């Protein structure tokens, strides 16, 4: 509680500026969404890694008995790994298997394959949009696709350097936001040119200087949340002020300190 009290006092002591660079309600909403997007992607990443490792070890049967396309979905708050093959138009599955990530077992309950196919179709379309830049730069990446907030399908291309984590790296990502049916690309996010490493002290707070226009980028949020889960204090500085991550893990919350 002492740490929280100190931060609260610091928040009250810092003067607010009367320029355009302030933490407006619109920025607050965008900040919250970006933070939740990063947590969703981290969760998706762990599910994908875990299910892929189990698949490779034959935990779900022979590898060639499962579909070639992998996806992680959330059903009733649980992460489910899906393996499927589909026709060329992604209108029907030709092979399908689902596994419960928590129990490491096959799932037999029905799933909405149309919704899953929509995500797979969006993922392919998003990669086709961004692939050339990664190939030209000879930059390895991993794709992630998931439903978010019930209003979109998000496809992200994340550099392998960011995922490896040594040295700490942010930037270089591209994002594609699709309509819920996966048919319409409604927004592009391009931070491809912002790939860079972050200096981190052995102890104390890790400070990330954001390159985001209004709020931190997805990979900046990802690094902050990943470090927080490891017990590190993290702050992100932006043109309108500084944000400090208070608490640990899923219960961690951002405290905004405006300039």
What can be said about this structure in brief?
With 259 residues, this protein is an alpha+beta fold. The protein is built from five helices and 14 strands.
Largest sheet geometry: 4 strands, antiparallel
Query: How far from one another are the termini?
Result: 24 Å
Overall helicity: 25-40%
Going across the biggest sheet, name each strand in turn: 1-2-3-4
Please state the overall shape, judged from the principal axes of the Cα atoms.
globular
Unreliable segments of 5+ consecutive residues: 1-20
Q: Please write the string of helix (H) and strand (E) elements.
A: HHEEEEHEEHEEEEEHEEE
What number is the mean pLDDT? 88
Number of strands: 14
Task: Supply the helix-strand structural class.
Answer: alpha+beta
Number of DSSP helical runs: 5
Strand percentage: 25-35%
Question: Descriptors for this entry?
Answer:
four-stranded antiparallel sheet; alpha+beta; 259 residues; disordered N terminus; 14 strands
Structure commentary:
The chain has helices at residues 2-13, 25-56, 113-136, 160-164, 218-229; strands at 69-75, 78-86, 93-100, 105-106, 141-148, 152-159, 169-170, 174-178, 185-190, 196-197, 206-209, 234-238, 241-246, 253-258. It has one domain (20-42, 60-258). It has five helices and 14 strands. It has a four-stranded antiparallel β-sheet, with helices on both faces. A four-stranded antiparallel β-sheet has the order 5-6-8-9, sandwiched between helices. The longest helix has 32 residues, at 25-56. Helix 2 (25-56) packs across helix 5. Strand 8 and strand 9 (185-190) form a beta hairpin. With 259 residues, it is α+β, with helices and mostly antiparallel strands. The protein is globular and about 55 Å long.
């Amino acid at each position: 509680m002492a740490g929280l009290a100190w931060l609260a006092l610091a928040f009250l002591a810092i003067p607010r500026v009367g320029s355009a660079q302030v933490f407006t309600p619109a920025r607050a909403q965008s900040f919250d969404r970006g933070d939740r997007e990063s947590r969703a992607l981290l969760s998706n990443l762990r599910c994908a890694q875990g299910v892929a490792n189990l698949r490779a070890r034959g935990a779900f049967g022979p590898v060639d008995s499962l579909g070639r396309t992998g996806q992680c979905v959330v059903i009733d708050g649980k992460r489910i790994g899906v393996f499927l093959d589909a026709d060329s138009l992604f209108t029907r599955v030709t092979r399908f298997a689902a596994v419960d990530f928590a129990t490491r077992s096959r799932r037999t309950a029905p799933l909405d394959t149309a919704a899953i196919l929509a995500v797979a179709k969006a993922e392919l379309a998003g990669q086709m949009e961004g692939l050339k830049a990664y190939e030209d730069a000879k930059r390895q990446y991993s794709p992630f696709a998931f439903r978010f907030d019930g209003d979109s399908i998000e496809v992200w291309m994340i550099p392998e350097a960011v995922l490896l984590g040594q040295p700490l790296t942010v930037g270089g990502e591209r994002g594609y936001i699709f309509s819920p049916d996966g048919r319409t690309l409604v927004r592009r996010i391009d931070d491809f040119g912002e790939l860079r490493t972050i200096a981190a002290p052995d102890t104390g707070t890790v400070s990330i200087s954001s390159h985001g226009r209004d709020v931190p980028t997805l990979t900046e949020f990802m690094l902050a949340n990943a470090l927080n889960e490891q017990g590190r204090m993290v702050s992100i500085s932006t043109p309108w002020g500084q944000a400090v991550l208070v608490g640990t893990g899923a219960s961690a919350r951002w405290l905004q300190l405006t300039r």
